[in-house]
Design goal:
- The complex is a heterodimer.
- Chain A has helices at 3-6, 27-31, 36-64, 75-111, 119-141, 155-159, 164-191, 204-236, 249-266, 269-283, 290-303, 319-347, 356-379, 381-387, 391-421, 427-453, 468-498, 538-548.
- Chain A is mainly alpha-helical.
- In chain A, helix 11 (290-303) packs antiparallel against helix 12.
- The longest helix of chain A is centred in the first third of the chain and has 37 residues, at 75-111.
- By secondary structure, chain B is an all-alpha fold.
- Chain B has helices spanning 14-49, 51-60, 63-89, 92-122, 153-186, 196-221.
- Chain B is elongated, with a radius of gyration of 22 Å.
- The chains are: A mainly alpha, B mainly alpha.
- The interface between A and B is large, with 40 and 34 residues.
Chain lengths: 552, 225
């Protein structure tokens, strides 16, 4: 079977086909499903809900910062708001976003499998996610928590009198959800590939997800145990990180960042994975340097474990370890740059078309480059001392996490929406909202680079009046960004009812997921496919087109 | 092509299923290494910082109980290995019997552990509940004749209790798994063609055993020579 030609067989006569969405409508068929595609949709609904909550917190933060005084919320409330924004966005939106939604939906389809290796475990992950989310939401509703998403001791262990333990339990539980998802994907990649799907015939999305999963499996337990120690310390008041009995608060920071720095790569590698698919499809070209893109994901996953102390340059670590971590942090820029250069080289002389997913993909390249380069700036010891804990850092990681990951997530959702639902969204609205998001994003976060550089610290609701101009610019941008995020929610949902039928392969993309029907049948493929050539064989399409056209 | 009933629907054949399940368990054990790793690292950091207090802590533990427990747990691992061997050969009676012995030795271990916890509670060594730097038999003496424990021994005892309790929790999970396996074995679930659950339960149990092999020396044996 040639997978590209299979994509061209016109959709069979429009009888009502059974697919994974319509074979059973009962609630229990969703809540007890073992189908990776349905679980992906359960995740999609859940994380959209959490995104709305985290976004609401961000809205209040930006509103408060319009004026340099406490004009809407008290300082205590402000602390709770940014903690809620961070906790929700990191653990309940970004980390599950691409892996648990798109990864779940696509991994088995891309590998030519009927399902992930452990379908029951997959459903368990979702339930753990929901239980962890319930704990966290309950704590937030019951009065919130004010430690920041980093839970630094001794504030979190001894001084804060908010609901730290509840939130920590929530994150502990959701950590298991992450671990089990990662474990599932690694095993799926190893054992569920269809005949002929060798490692170097896998789509780059799978390579990216594989690298992400390695981090999820190896880093998350460290966070879980560290937060468990904070919880134990709080409940029994016994001071594991308390200097009064010989403990060391710096140890907490080391352990926390040993997880949380790799976790930053959980929040960008999947974005890069989606990016590789979008760029190749809308350039109609093989990726430039497939092997380099694949291995740079793995390199980022490995190097990501060796840079954690660059979060602690001013926390009292030795100058020598500062030097080493500074150098190692700059090394991470190498595989990241390889990716950016390779995507750019893929665009070169491609037949580029600017559909909605491609707009997101191009936005990703620009924003990620800015986020990445400011990361190199922050890795230099001297500059970091100046801008540590300022809005410069905030702007830097929002360029990565929002400008990178959220753009990629939205690009991916648009790209695979016709596969997931069988319907096309409205292209005009899609492009419009992609442009609105790009403009809104830059207006929100670029002023924060300047704010940070001229000295505005993070996490303060009150600031000197001379910072107001840049803060107002940022808040204005945030309102545009909010519109940009609301639009897809509306037109994507409308497309379910009014959208045109998508057909099996509306983007004329390569990849096994496009060879099956849209939406896919319950077990993905009627017969397990056999792969005979490398992925991204867009040249085969060109050849066919030439043969179809009558020669003049 | 029809598959045997024990091959789940997402797999092509038993080979793929066995490979997946075994790899999954190894990955799970990798996460466990990092779970325990946090505790081992923190313990090592504090031990380096407070060597005397930690040595005193080691001396306040019951060395003989730790020693017996090490032997008990290693023996249980032997029975687990024998259970796996019999599962491969299809001797289901042997599998059930050896799993039973594994459980028995696991329970003996937990019994000793509980005894040791009780003794330590009597010695006022439990942080957060009754830890005191003055040993209970010296509280009635005048302060000049007391031999107070170092303040940081509290940290040692803290890590001792967290690590051993976390280890014991893993044993309870393992015992639960083995009870299920015994029931399945007696219902004739396993055959030489399909016995992988016994094998990966074995992997888990050996891992729990190995964790103890590291816990025993760092907690009990690093004391005055």
């Amino acid at each position: 079977m040639n997978m590209t030609t299979a994509a061209y067989i016109p959709a069979p006569t429009r009888r009502k086909q059974l697919n994974f969405l319509n074979h059973d409508y009962r609630i229990r068929s969703w809540l007890l499903t073992k189908d990776h595609k349905r679980i992906a949709l359960l995740y999609m609904v859940s994380i959209t809900f959490f995104f709305a909550i985290g976004g609401a917190a961000a809205t209040l933060i930006r509103l408060e910062l319009v004026y340099p005084t406490n004009w809407i919320v008290k300082s205590e409330t402000y602390n709770k708001l940014f903690t809620m924004h961070g906790v929700i966005m990191v653990w309940f939106f970004l980390i599950p976003s691409i892996p648990a939604v798109l990864g779940n939906f696509l991994m088995p389809l891309m590998l030519g499998a009927r399902d992930v290796a452990f379908p029951k475990l997959n459903l368990t992950s979702w339930y753990l996610f929901i239980i962890g989310g319930a704990f966290t939401l309950f704590a937030l509703l019951w009065g919130g928590v004010d430690t920041g998403w980093t839970f630094y001791t001794p504030l979190s262990s001894s001084f804060s009198n908010t609901h730290v333990v509840l939130v920590v339990i929530g994150i502990f539980i959701v950590g298991f959800s992450t671990i089990l998802t990662g474990l599932n994907f690694i095993v799926t990649t190893h054992t569920m590939r269809c005949p002929g799907m060798t490692w170097f015939r896998m789509p780059l999305f799978v390579w990216g997800m594989y690298a992400t999963s390695v981090i999820q499996v190896l880093a998350t337990p460290v966070l879980a145990m560290t937060l468990a120690l904070v919880g134990i310390e709080r409940i029994w008041r016994i001071g594991i990180f308390d200097p009064a009995i010989g403990g060391d608060p710096l140890l907490f920071q080391h352990l926390f960042w040993f997880y949380s720095h790799p976790a930053v790569y959980i929040m960008i590698l999947p974005g890069m994975a989606v990016e590789s698919e979008l760029i190749t499809c809308f350039s109609r070209k093989e990726p430039f340097g497939y092997v380099f893109i694949a291995f740079s994901s793995v390199a980022i996953a490995i190097l990501g474990f060796l840079v954690w102390a660059h979060h602690m340059f001013v926390a009292g670590i030795s100058v020598y370890s500062g030097l080493v971590f500074s150098m190692l942090s700059m090394v991470v820029a190498v595989p990241s740059a390889i990716k950016v250069f390779n995507w750019t080289a893929t665009l070169y002389r491609g037949s580029i078309s600017l559909e909605t997913p491609m707009l997101y993909a191009l936005g990703f390249i620009g924003l990620f480059t800015i986020g990445g380069l400011t990361g190199v700036m922050l890795a230099t010891l001297g500059l970091d001392v100046h801008v540590h804990d300022t809005y410069f850092v905030i702007a830097h990681f929002h360029y990565i996490m929002v400008g990178g990951m959220v753009m990629a997530y939205l690009g991916g959702v648009h790209f695979w929406w016709p596969k997931i639902t069988g319907k096309m969204y409205d292209e005009w609205w899609g492009r419009l909202s992609a442009i609105i998001i790009f403009i809104g994003f830059n207006l929100t976060f670029f002023p924060q680079f300047i704010l940070g550089y001229i000295g505005m610290p993070r996490r303060y609701p009150v600031y000197p009046p001379e910072f107001q101009f840049w803060n107002d610019l940022s808040s204005a941008g945030a309102s545009i960004l909010a519109i940009g995020y609301a639009l897809p929610l509306i037109y994507l949902l409308l497309s379910l009812r009014y959208g045109k039928d998508a057909g099996n392969n509306p983007h004329r993309a390569t990849g096994l997921e496009w060879t099956t029907t849209s939406p896919p049948p319950e077990h993905n493929f009627h017969t397990i496919p056999v792969i005979t050539h490398e992925p991204y064989a867009y040249y085969l399409q060109l050849k066919e087109n030439r043969e179809e056209e009558p020669s003049v | 092509m029809s598959k045997p009933a024990y091959v789940e629907q997402q797999y092509e054949d038993i080979g793929q299923q066995t490979h997946s399940a075994t790899l999954g368990m190894w990955l799970f054990l990798a996460t466990e290494v990092l779970f325990f790793g946090v505790l081992f690292v923190s313990y090592t950091v504090y031990r380096t910082r407070w060597p005397d207090a930690f040595r005193q802590g080691s001396e306040d533990l019951e060395l003989w109980i730790g020693g017996i427990n090490t032997a008990v747990l290693l023996t249980s691992s032997l029975f687990m290995a024998l259970a796996v061997r019999d599962a491969k050969r299809g001797h289901n009676g042997g599998v059930a019997a050896y799993l039973g012995l594994t459980i028995l030795f696991g329970v003996i271990f937990l019994g000793f552990k509980a005894t040791e916890y009780t003794l330590e509670a009597h010695e006022h060594l439990v942080p957060g509940i009754n830890f005191s730097t003055i040993p209970p038999d010296e509280t009635s003496k005048p302060p000049s004749q007391q031999h107070p424990r170092p303040e940081q021994e509290r940290l040692f005892m803290l890590f001792y209790f967290i690590m051993t309790a976390f280890h014991a929790t893993h044993m309870l999970v393992g015992i639960g798994v083995m009870i299920v396996l015994i029931i399945l074995t007696r219902r004739g679930h396993f055959s030489p063609a399909y016995h992988n659950p016994v094998e990966i339960a074995g992997l888990y149990w050996h891992f729990v055993d190995i964790v103890w092999v590291f816990l025993y020396p760092i907690l009990y044996l690093l004391r005055q020579g």
